Amino acid sequence: MAACERLDGGALRELLARTQGVLFDCDGVLWNGERAVPGAPELLERLGRGGKAALFVSNNSRRSVAELAARFARLGFRGVAAEQLFSSALCAARLLSQRLPRPCPPGAVFVLGGDGLRGELRAAGLRLAGEEPGPVRAVLVGYDEHFSFAKLSEACAHLRDPDCLLVATDVDPWHPLSDGRTTPGTGSLTAAVETASGRRAVVVGKPSTYMFECITEHFGVDPARTLMVGDRLETDILFGHRCGLTTVLTLTGVSRLDQAQAYLAAGQLDLVPHYYVDSIADLIAGLAD
Amino acid sequence: MAEAGGDDGRCVRLSADRAQALLADVDTLLFDCDGVLWRGETAVPGAPEALTALRARGKRLGFVTNNSSKTREAYAEKLKRLGFGGPAGPGAGLEVFGTAYCAALYLRQRLEGGGVPAKAYVLGSPALAAELEAVGIASVGVGPEPLQGAGPGDWLAEPLEPGVGAVVVGFDPHFSYAKLTKAVRYLQQPGCLLVGTNMDNRLPLEGGSYIAGTGCLVRAVEMAAQRQAEIIGKPSRFIFDCVAKEFGLNPDRTVMVGDRLDTDILLGVTCGLKTILTLTGVSSLEDVKGNQQSDCSSRNKMVPDFYVDSIADLIPALED
Hints:
heterodimer; A: alpha/beta; Rossmann fold; 2 domains; B: alpha/beta; five-stranded parallel β-sheet; globular
């Protein structure tokens, strides 16, 4: 049973000894804004040397995988390959490719989102509304700085067709910036579209388990020997529990320890991590030299 | 058409006889407007005659609408123009209770005594701003707001107006990510109120299509700010309390007439009024049946006492 225990000492060493791989969230775990969490690059290096796999699972739908890989490099993380990166943009493209006819009909996907998301969709062979005519067969809600009433109404018009899919990259309500201010998340835009259309979106990102399905298509993962490390209880930790992983909350991001403890006291155990650390650098001590 | 009345005796067709009996015990009728009195710019046939006859019989009329895009005066002008009568001159609008006016009343109550002139950040229409100004609350934010700069860091650095005590979300065709961001920033200031004019999820258009309703915008702000809004319009009691205060109503002798089960009829039931559903708008007898047969007690509430095909059906009961 998850009990939100501090992960250190013997428990840390034993856990890492039997761990084969680690899934990491990115924002608030590896970096905050343009600053790497101190010790995070070293941790990844040590995991690699110890023969443990690292994969990265991010709800951020602004960035294509290429942009995400560039960010790793820029912030001092070496040796991270594109294959290790699972963003909600990439996985949304995968989901839509699976559910729409192949080859994708022209103009099939109406996107509320930016260039990074659109690029990832095109790279998967999807064809976007607004770039060519054609009946829209799916509405994809992502992080959209240019969200407007007009776009909301256009999405609703497409969703009057009950066969038109409604997909959201994630449902995060807000995102923190490095100075503690927040910016509205895809969740707020999805709420608007769901309310007008009367439909529930299929969610790609955590806490939905879809990104885990994408991962296991490419990598053998034994959940009993895999950790999920994240900073947000309602996405990362819930995702980890749903996928049968051992969950570790790091306190360098969104959620606070007292919030985890409140969930524990309230019996909402899906939102309680097995363990917590102040930062992922604390995991280094658990790795054999 | 066959009687619809369910086993519980509700949703009975309001025949002329039943209407006469009902109206004998009623002083005030409250009407929703869209889908009841008119559709778009066209009066429902017979509706103006029905209201003229009600007024002639000494019944008091009130108009209760979730629309936040018109002032009371503008509504009164439309009522007159489409043949529904009503007072003229400075008294025009006194029969009308729209959510722009009632939101202003709510905020005047809540922001009174703050020591500084009250101010609100408004996601809504010029009419909403005008109703707020009329009770002494300045508004900022109406209209488009372009994103400045390159990214979240830039637009979050935009200066905020000092002294904003409330964010008001109404129908806003200029709603955008930038405005949503600004609303959340104001809401993060201590003591800032969050008010939504109404939660209608859609605005039906002619021909069966629709556009997004204010409810969508309220939900987006609630989600981004992780707070619940205080809702002014039907089915919230507040809008009825505004009417009751100004009219001095007896709920037992008041009828609510509307076309939407989840706003008009639910408000009537909640406030102890008699309720009539007209089939000229959103809800159908199928919808009523679904609510009657549902296991969910909140759906069971949304069943009217009576229904009519249109409010013109009241006319035979009013003829001498």
